[in-house]
Amino acid sequence: MSATPTSASTVAGLLTTADSLLTAGLGGPLTPGGRARGAAYALRIALEAAVDAVLSAEEAGLRRVTMRAKLLCLRHYAGPDLARRANALWSGLSTGCKYHHDEMGPSHAQVRAWRAAVEELVTELAAEGPDKGPQELP
Hints:
Elements: H1 5-23, H2 32-55, H3 57-60, H4 67-78, H5 80-97, H6 108-128
């Protein structure tokens, strides 16, 4: 069972939202920094949805577990390398989503790089799917 159509369409919609925030003109109420932060937030949610699809959160009893705990479990289902990359990307996106008055937000170039990384990881996670089951760890 790979990612459900709902989660796949949700992820695709979130990636489209991030793209539109990054490519939209400077008009409207959002500043360039606000657009970058909003795109980072959409990307983080897309990554979380892809992780949830792999873990089958509802069936595995992981629905109410934090994303940090899910990322630890991902190592068992998708292997250590993919889990490490997902964790690092999720941590970067989480930092990029936060507003601190004394820090600059993520740049558009950084968010575009995150966008490419999220798309790559989402594709790899969808290939893993929950049907593959737990992996043997070295």
